[in-house]
């Protein structure tokens, strides 16, 4: 039997809201959201870890680049478990790095470094962890995207209204860089 909890974000969640409850979640049964063509599943967030870190997966089809963005107070990791993901990162000196990550590959993005990614193969999956002094940003996915009840990818990509991109930086440590240019391929 799987327990469900009410949270301030959802009427029903498999993730307990208190940081002192151990729990186990079956594959895919975390808090899910659709954003662009991807399915994001949160397994642990700030409310469980006292804002120390979050843990989530992003699954998606081969597609467009996720918009360039930066986290002023948050470090982020990308660990690919399926498919291939192209990671774009710019360091603090302006040097741009582009790498295709395949299963078992790991990418680290320090705070204040612009970054983006693109799924290079269908059925790609990234495990993400974010941590930093500013807390965690996992509820950004539901705020910018839309909560998802099902386990699959969105039938149609969910593209947020432009005004939502301006709201997110005030609530979460995610600032989009719409004019950012990648000099790599």
List keywords for this structure.
185 residues, mainly beta, 7-stranded antiparallel beta sheet, 3-stranded antiparallel beta sheet, 3 helices, globular, Quercetin 2,3-dioxygenase
List the helices and strands and how they pair.
Elements: E1 31-35, E2 38-44, H1 46-49, E3 54-60, E4 69-70, E5 75-82, E6 85-90, E7 96-101, E8 106-109, E9 115-119, E10 124-131, H2 140-144, E11 146-148, H3 162-171, E12 175-176
Antiparallel strand pairs: 1-2, 1-11, 2-3, 3-10, 4-12, 5-8, 5-10, 6-7, 6-9
Low-pLDDT stretches are: none
Q: Averaged pLDDT, please?
A: 90
Main sheet properties: 7 strands, antiparallel
Our count of helices gives: 3
- Beta strand count: 12
Q: What is the percent of helical residues?
A: 10-25%
**Structural class by helix and strand composition:** mainly beta
- Portion in strands: 25-35%
The N- to C-terminal Cα distance equals 48 Å
Shape type: globular
Arrangement of strands in the largest sheet: 8-5-10-3-2-1-11
- How large, in whole angstroms, is the Cα Rg? 16 Å
Instruction: Spell out the helices and strands N to C.
Output: EEHEEEEEEEEHEHE
Protein name: Quercetin 2,3-dioxygenase
Organism: Streptomyces citrinus
Question: What does the model show?
Answer:
This is Quercetin 2,3-dioxygenase. With 185 residues, this protein is mainly beta. The protein has helices spanning 46-49, 140-144, 162-171; strands at residues 31-35, 38-44, 54-60, 69-70, 75-82, 85-90, 96-101, 106-109, 115-119, 124-131, 146-148, 175-176. It is 10% helix and 34% strand. The strands form 3 sheets. Strands 8-5-10-3-2-1-11 form a 7-stranded antiparallel sheet. Strands 7-6-9 form a 3-stranded antiparallel sheet, with no helix packed on it. The chain is globular, with a radius of gyration of 16 Å.
């Amino acid at each position: 039997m799987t327990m469900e909890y009410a949270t301030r974000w959802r009427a029903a969640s498999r993730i307990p809201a208190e940081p002192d409850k151990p729990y186990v979640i079956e594959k895919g049964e975390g808090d899910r959201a659709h954003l662009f063509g991807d399915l994001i599943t949160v397994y642990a967030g700030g409310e469980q870890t006292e804002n120390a870190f979050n843990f989530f997966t992003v699954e998606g089809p081969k597609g467009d680049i996720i918009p360039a963005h930066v986290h002023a107070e948050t470090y982020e990791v990308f660990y690919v478990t399926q498919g291939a993901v192209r990671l774009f990162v710019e360091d603090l000196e302006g040097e741009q790095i582009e790498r295709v990550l395949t299963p078992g590959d790991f990418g680290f993005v320090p705070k204040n470094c612009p970054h983006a990614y693109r799924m290079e193969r269908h059925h790609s999956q990234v495990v993400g962890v974010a941590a930093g002094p500013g807390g965690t940003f996992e509820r950004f996915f539901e705020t910018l995207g839309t909560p998802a009840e099902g386990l699959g990818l969105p039938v149609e990509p969910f593209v947020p209204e432009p005004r939502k991109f301006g709201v997110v930086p005030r609530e979460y440590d995610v600032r989009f860089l719409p004019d950012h240019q990648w000099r790599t391929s």
